Amino acid sequence: MRAMVYHGPGNKSWEEVPDPTIIDDTDAVVRVDTVTICGTDLHILKGDVPAVTDGRILGHEAVGTVTEIGAGVKNVKPGDRVLVSCITACGRCRYCRDQAYGQCRGGGGWILGHRIDGTQAEQVRVPFADNSTYPVPPGVSDEQVLMLADILPTSYEVGVLNGGVRPGDTVAVVGAGPIGLAAILAARLLSPGHVVAIDLADSRLDAARNFGADIVVNNGQQDPVARVNDLTDGLGADVAIEAVGVPETFELCTRLIRPGGRVANVGVHGKPAPLHLEDLWIKNVTITTGLVDTYSTPTLLRLVAAGQIDPARFVTHRFALADFPAAYDVFTRPGDTGALKVVLTRA
What we know:
The chain is α/β, with parallel strands linked by helices and 347 residues long. The chain has helices at 39-46, 94-97, 129-132, 142-146, 151-161, 178-187, 202-210, 224-231, 247-256, 277-280, 297-305, 324-332, 334-337, and strands at residues 2-6, 12-16, 28-36, 62-69, 81-84, 123-126, 133-135, 170-174, 194-199, 215-218, 237-242, 257-265, 286-288, 315-320, 341-345.
């Protein structure tokens, strides 16, 4: 089969690799029908995730068809159409029993495209298949459900729920890329008073309006702290969601937040970010971090099936599976291409 293979920072190749096989009796092999690229893959290619080594197949999101299962798999069978989650769960360890699947100590967690070969391939081996795949509801498209592999549960759990968004809150989302837009969409489920999107690109701020932001701020042209303070009688945001993963945006979140507010970091950081405790210690500010656990995936699937949210809105570009290099080129240059999410499908 062919796959997108990592060969060190800045180097990747669409190349021939061996087909995956069943290793453990809880494995399944899934034929990849629809797949996407994540911002985390770009962090890997920048060298921000040193655990990813030369020769690793990238990717941790897919929708596909089960072709083979191990003897211990009970809940899926060959021919089933499934969502392959970005998080793998053994289902037995202390963290899995607490639904903290991202911290699985039984061989799961974020392993696809990280510590084992991932989904940007014609086939993928999925460990703990009973706990790490989800049946695709009837009537739901591959593109809709694919966005539930990572960006929607990540933004909902790590941004909105960790941030404690409540009805009437002023929520500032720093970064209007796919994760930030998903945070805006998810925050709207909890009836905030205002959602403020902050970004340097006007095209992404236009997208933020379409996804539910009622106020947008280009922080290259306007002071976002002053704008949020004007909106809140000088208090600041109730919740600030960091959705980029660079020191400047994290620091901006800590300046946007009100006393007693919550900063929820979602972005993947590759270098240290300053933490100004000399200012924050007296303000009762809560800062949360997190890797997605995907405990919300069943809820989000029900919302999609019921027509309450339509994640296919994220998809801006479509490619054949063999066109992975072109898809990466488009996704890597969103300022030029307008890309939010790219989707690749089997011909």
